[in-house]
What does this fold into?
Amino acid sequence: MFTTAPGWPVMLSDGPVVLRPYRRRDADAWSEVRRANQAWLSPWESSPPGRWDELNSPAAFRYVHRDHRRSARRGEGMPFAVCLREGGRERLVGHLNLGNIVRRAFCSAYVGYWVDARVAGRGVIPTAMALAVDHAFGPGGLHRVEVNIRPENRPSRRVVEKLGFREEAYHPRYMHIDGAWRDHIGYAMTVEEIAAEGGLLARWHRVRATTR
It folds into this structure.
């Protein structure tokens, strides 16, 4: 029998950044962003064989949406569409998932994300990450979140480093991506590490204030 994860479904926001569950009508917007960002995203993602435009078509989104819904119903994931609200309109610009959720004595999840290159550098994903982690540690009932990133992926590593994630491991040949088994660096954070700061979003706001 399927169950709903604690704290799910939910919509989260901070300024123009909005995290929400996916909707069926996101198909065209999701496909446009994914297809426009092939060069930006494909080197870092594991994917089945096939052409990028076919794997990221509106039709393919039906299967992506189905898998997201199944994962959320089982309590194994919290898949968010990352959106920007500007000029009274909302547009999909990325994805963030709290996945592989394990409960009981572990209470942990892995975080994966991507963002449209056209809005990169505007703090969208760090804000989205901070929102999601605070939610995971609060209503989501988790104790720990992990992120694994290829050493060469400097933009993604900067996201977690700016937020204060702890580098804790090096994983040789961790995942098959772009035709080969690729090394990854493991980052992690537990709820105790940000509790005294009022949460990760509060920490991120202070970091942004000192770097402007």
